[in-house]
Amino acid sequence: MTTTALSRRPVGELLRQWREHRRLSQLDLSIQADISTRHLSFLETGRSKPSRDMVLHLAEELDLPLRERNRLLLAAGFAPEFSETTLDAPRMTAVRTALRQILAGHEPYPAVVVDGRWNLVEGNVSLGLLTSLVDPELLAAPANVLRASMHPKGLAPHIVNLGEWRSHLLGRLRRQIAFSADPELEALYAEIRAYPCDQPEPEEAELAGAGELVVPLRLRHDAGELAFFSTIATFGTPLDITLAELAIESFFPADRRTAEVLRSAARTSPAAL
Q: What global pTM score does this model have?
């Protein structure tokens, strides 16, 4: 469903939709929000109009993304609470500086900044280790990191454990969809799910083998097989939609040999990464 269609829906209908999406009964949410079930029912059916504070209170109890909190406010006839500032705006200078410090500080290992729909915002020099294996068409702006990873012309043919890694990425995307209910992410999931994969795709619960701590990304490279694990970092207590949706994915070597290859490449020819 489009954003425009959603914004035209009554606030009570949106509240009910989110409550059901969170798998909460009216009783569950009324207890959680410390309001009567009758009052919540009246709000959902449109018999009562919520105050601005009530909209924000229920949005907090439903753990809604900032973008959706603004949508509820608009549907209730109020001005949005949270800004959405472009990353190149002057007020975001400190944010841009922090992101670039993090990316540069992670060298000689790859790191990337993505938005809430996994579009590439910025990467460090060592990200070239991964993007050099991807068809340039997939890197044209706005490049989507998940699409570039799983597309047959992307990283997929170079991933040794494609079935495992694909299951891991799709599981991560499913959880993000469960939180955000974003139709664009749902479309991205369907697209990636349709890509061919010639390896078994284990259930997420089966991904970790004996002695494994994380699901590694095992990559065929000219220097031999390289192994990585990754971490995701986000901004704490963001009050801006752009900040709330940004994430930094940092790749670390999963074995000594991968670390040595990356450090050696950085010393001899950083641009070659």
A: 0.86
Instruction: Assess if residue 84 is contained within a domain.
Output: no
177-186 contact pairs (CB < 8 A, 24+): 179/63, 179/65, 180/65, 180/68, 180/116, 181/18, 181/21, 181/68, 182/116, 182/117, 183/1, 183/2, 184/117, 185/117
- Round to whole Å and give the CA distance between 179 and 252: 27
Helix (H) / strand (E) element for 245: namely helix 241-245
For 156-179, write each residue's pLDDT tens digit.
999 999 999 999 999 999 999 999
Range of the structural domain that residue 186 is part of = 90-272
236 and 118 in a common domain: yes
CATH of residue 264's domain is: 3.30.450.180
For residue 145, give the nearest of 163, 164, 169, 129 by alpha carbon. 169
Confidence band for 17, pLDDT divided at 50, 70 and 90: very high
For residue 35, the one-letter residue type is I
User: How many domains are there within the chain?
Assistant: 2
Strand order in the sheet with 217-219: 120-123, 111-114, 247-253, 226-233, 217-219
* Domain contains 21: yes
Residue with tokens 């043919």: 157
CA 98 vs. chain centroid, Å, equals 19
Give the contacts of 209 (CB within 8 A, at least 6 positions apart): none
Strand duo 111-114 + 217-219: pairing? unpaired
Q: Contact 139/149 with Cβ under 8 angstroms?
A: no
Task: Render pLDDT for 24-56 as a digit per residue (tens, 0 to 9).
Answer: 999 999 999 999 999 999 999 999 999 999 999
Tell me: do 70 and 199 sit in the same domain: no
Same domain, 119 and 205: yes
